[in-house]
Amino acid sequence: EEYGDYEEYGAADGGSYGADGGSYDAGGMAVGQDGNKDVESLVQSFMKKTTDEFNSPVWQCVQCGKVSRVSTNLKDHIEAKHIEGLQFECTQCLKIFKSRPSLRTHMRLHK
Q1: Residues 91/81, Cβ–Cβ less than 8 Å
Q2: What is the pLDDT along the chain (111 residues), one digit of tens a residue?
Q3: pTM of the model as a whole
Q4: In which element (H, E) is residue 48 found?
Q5: Residue 30 DSSP SS3
Q6: Long-range contacts at 4-8 (CB < 8 A, ≥ 24 apart)
Q7: Which of 16, 29, 47, 53 is the most exposed place for a label (fewest CB within 10 A)?
């Protein structure tokens, strides 16, 4: 069962695929609290649920085939490796990050 179709993202949302077709450029999309749903939908469109060789459920990246039992790990992989141009702002120091995982790591400094 495949979740979403990453082809639906393109010129209409300001994004485009790289020349190699392997990465998606979100066109510098600045993302705040309310924009996270759009990012989540985009990330999920790169994922499908399948089973491994032991018939255990896993998530698979449709772009490169990487698998993970934990969906959050695969989402982090997709943001870091396959989606370019996202911008996430730290609400405390206003520094900009390219992915939610990098922002989460940064936020530990403010605790």
Answers
A1: no
A2: 333 333 333 333 444 444 444 555 555 554 444 456 788 899 999 999 999 999 999 999 999 999 999 999 999 999 889 988 888 899 999 999 888 889 999 999 998
A3: 0.65
A4: strand 47-51
A5: strand
A6: 4/41, 4/44, 4/45, 4/46, 4/47, 5/45, 6/42, 6/45, 6/46, 6/62, 6/63, 8/45
A7: 53
C-alpha–C-alpha distance, residues 50 and 19, integer Å: 28
d(CA 103, CA 108) in angstroms, rounded, equals: 9
- Asked whether the beta carbons of 59 and 68 are under 8 A apart, the reply is yes
The token pair at 75 is 């989402």
For residue 13, give the amino acid letter.
D
Torsion sign across C-alpha atoms 14, 63, 72, 56: positive
* Of residues 18, 71, 78, the one with CA closest to residue 42: 78
Tokens 């060789």 locate to: 53
Rounded distance between C-alpha atoms, residue 91 and residue 65, angstroms: 34
- Token readout for 48 is 């499908």
